[in-house]
Amino acid sequence: MKQLVIFDLDGTLLNTIEDLGIATNHALSMLGYPTHPLAAYPSMVGNGVRKLLQRALPSGMDTDEQVERLRTAFTQYYDEHCTDHSAPYPGIPELLSELQAKSIKLAVASNKYHEAVVKLIRHYFPDIEWSVIMGHKEGVPVKPDPSIVFEILTCSPTPKSDVLYVGDSGVDMETARRACVESVGVTWGFRSISELRAYYADHIVQNPDEILALAK
Question: How many domains would you assign to the chain?
Answer without folding.
Answer: 2
